[in-house]
Amino acid sequence: MAEDLDRVSLTLPPEMTDRLDGIAEEWDYASRSEAVRDALRDFFTTYAWEGGDETRHYGTIVIAHEHDHDSDVAGRLQTIQHEYADVVTSVQHIHLSEDRCMETLVVDGTAGQIDELANRLRALGGVKQVKVVVVGGDAGTQGHDDSHGHEHNQTDHGHSHDH
Residue 60: in which H helix or E strand, if any? Predict the structure, then answer.
């Protein structure tokens, strides 16, 4: 293995070891250690997220909402998304049924910025559910760094909701 690794001994009850082995096999991990490293990366991200640190996070916010032209939920969602244009890098809008829609926002910002955006979305009438999934990023940076050469796609919100 190319990485420099420290060896750590871990003591688990047999039930946890059996479960770890089963998951590692089912998910095709090369070893228990690789599965534990993966779990720890998620643990560290959760710790940083809950601490509200200034670490840059990447992730998604999924919103389920009513498809109601009278209440203009879609328009109000769009307004908030534009207010957070420095955090929202992409939006996907899907019609789940005649009266329900789902939007997936790709986000890039600090825990505080992403959490504030999610709370603004939750507070909107007609929004039924908001889920946030984040992964860790770069410590000490905020906002977009376009120097990495990737193109940011901001979805055109000017589409029609007519069926």
Answer: strand 56-66
User: Encoding tokens for residue 20?
Assistant: 């770890």
Output the six-digit token pair for 97: 């049924």
Q: What is the largest CA-CA distance in the chain?
A: 61
pLDDT tens column, 76-131: 999 999 999 999 999 999 999 988 999 999 999 998 899 999 999 999 989 999 99
User: CATH number of the domain at 56-148, please?
Assistant: 3.30.70.1150
> What's 124's DSSP letter?
S
Rounded distance between C-alpha atoms, residue 49 and residue 135, angstroms: 9
Q: Where are the domains of the chain?
A: 14-50, 56-148
Give the N- to C-terminal CA distance of the chain in Å, as an integer: 55
- How many CB atoms sit inside 10 A of residue 108's CB? 21
